[in-house]
Amino acid sequence: MTFAVDKLVLVPDDIDLSRSPLAGHLGVETYVLGAFNPALTRLPNGNLLMMVRVAEALRQPIFDGHVHNIRWSDGRYLLDAWPLEAANTADPRKFMLQGGGWKVMALTSLAWLLPVELSPDGLEVIAHHYDKAIAPHADFQMYGLEDARISKVGDRWLMTTCSVSPERHSTTLYSSINGLDWTFEDIVLDHQNKDMLIFEGLIDGHYWAQTRPLGDLYFAYPPGSEWRAGPSINLASSPDALHWKPYREPGIRPHSATVATARMGGGTPPILTDRGWLTLWHGVEPKEIVGIYRTYWSILDRDDPSKTVATEHAPLLEANPELTRPIEHQMYLRDVVFTTGIADGGDHYVVASGEGDLACRITHIPKSVFV
């Protein structure tokens, strides 16, 4: 599906690494591997705010016969070195350490979060708020913070982030009273979970969220089932947004009729419409190392979000090579759009996505699409 308003609003060259939290720590050159997967919310002044994942990478991760990663420790950023013979470096974003009985990964970059203020329509950058950047501050974030999602519930903004470390791959919560200044609250999910999205509103007095636990083992559905075994979008509720209980009914599951949802996860925080909770999510069709990421949509029952009111098998958004043509020299992934934010724009929704794990894309999607 194509839309009249669809553009990249932030690319790697827009980031000033002299103002990065890592500046002056490493003694080696870094660059912006990607500025992408932005959370999106509307500020009290009417402008929009993207919380951008900046993946700051080593320009030369391999030297002296070793591959290196960046790590935070006690307020400093350090380099670790791994022998090349112990690592698989096929993916430029990471390397796999070989020889163990399970998957062990290290990153060639460290991610921090940059608030970027946009015009009310989301199409122009107003300010980069480097002074309000969010960076690691504890051991459970020693490899960075990834893929923020922002929800406004009542008069408070809530932001979930994925905090990465050898200790755990946890979901951490931040809160704000103005959408721009953020306070760390706590770890809220301890298991590996890449996509926790808090609903923008309460259901029966409780906070609700979509979750997506990770795993390498899934039990089969019966032969002929409409569902395919694999990662799915689950649900949880909470009295306070800190303590979460999984919901007993399944949420959105991968459908056996299409390989496009062989792997799936949440995209934008669910927002309430006349039909129910609108949620944009991603499905991944297997291809090469990473796969093809597309954006899909569903509307969930306003009282029981385990029930799907409407959905489409056809993708809402796909990667757009025309948008990334000016930054073709920086492309390292293809076929990836990862939608992470949504805001009301009147007769349309302003939708924010990461394009190619490289840049931030804003698309205006008419509300009539979901009627």
From TrEMBL:
SUPFAM superfamilies, sorted: Arabinanase/levansucrase/invertase
Keyword Membrane among record annotations: no
Protein name (Swiss-Prot/TrEMBL): Glycosidase
Keyword annotations: Glycosidase, Glycosyltransferase, Hydrolase, Transferase
Pfam families in alphabetical order: Glyco_hydro_130
Annotated GO MF terms: hydrolase activity, acting on glycosyl bonds
Keyword set includes Transferase: yes
Family label: Belongs to the glycosyl hydrolase 130 family.
Organism: Sphingomonas natans
